[in-house]
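User: Second chain of the day. Same drill as before.
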Amino acid sequence: MEKKYSTIDWENLTFSFRETDRMYISNCKQGEEWEIGNMQDFQNLSISPAAGVLNYGQGLFEGMKAYRAIDGSVVLFRPKENAKRMQMGARRLGMPEVPEDIFIDAVIRSVQENSRWIPPAGKGTLYIRPLLMGSGPILGVSPAPEYTFLVYVSPVGPYFKGGLKPTSLKISENHHRAAPGGSGGVKAIGNYAPGMVPSKNAKSEGFAEIIYLDAVNHKYIEEVGAANFFCIKNGVISTPELTGTILGGITRLSIIELARSKGYEVREEKIDVEYALTADECFCAGTAAVVSSIGSIKHGDIVVEFCNGGVGEITRDIYDSLVSIQNRKSEDVFGWMMEIDV
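Assistant: Same format as last time:
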């Protein structure tokens, strides 16, 4: 097999797609049970133009990472939480739930058969993309008759260039990510396309990403593009509560548990944008971003800077502690990491 990775510059790896060797795929008809799928060479899919995912957006995905730890082992970060979240999303979108054991098996096999693409410790990670979609043809607005579950992987670098280096964000004035009663609380594919234009516009103005406010009152912070938001004031860490419009991030959950274990007070609550703008520190978090410090936020004509444009003490503490667990530099007292044989 050609050594495709021989030309990869691990030092300058970006968060972008790179075709790897193998992928996992399984099919299930509506009303039936999922069975363990097969590994195959990475390839394009053959799908009906009338597929439910193409016509009605009946699909969702997960984002995960495999890490090469400093001891040389390969580990996954809380994969069971991703399996549970995909099941919740499947229920919301009317798709058959992928059992946890099949989900985990698919992820592990996909990592094992692409193990040569896992970056060296500290140089990046192997991003894992489980995808569930209505692949069967359907003309009326109804659940598809057949579904496809697949997993592919790609080596990636940091989502935000500079890692923990502070970023500049802009609050969206005209767009919202989700509304009450919608699908904002699940990782539906349809949640992401509407955010591309606001994000692109913000980046063209020199910002790293957009911040969305709630669609009802237009005053409470919800998410940062595709990441969860945190702010810190007087030592108290706050993050928007899960009300059905905000994705329950695995990294978000982990930061809450980690911070509380370290003695910090963490509140899940509505965060008024005016409160956030008076915070001492702000950061965003997600599988792709991990933890990214927010150096400034622009709201209308106002620009507020945090920590003199530097990284806050608590933000750095949370980042260092989480990454240390993921890279096995410190003890995993939470039991978050799953080691796999490669």
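The first helix runs from residue 52 to 56.

User: Great, on to the next one.
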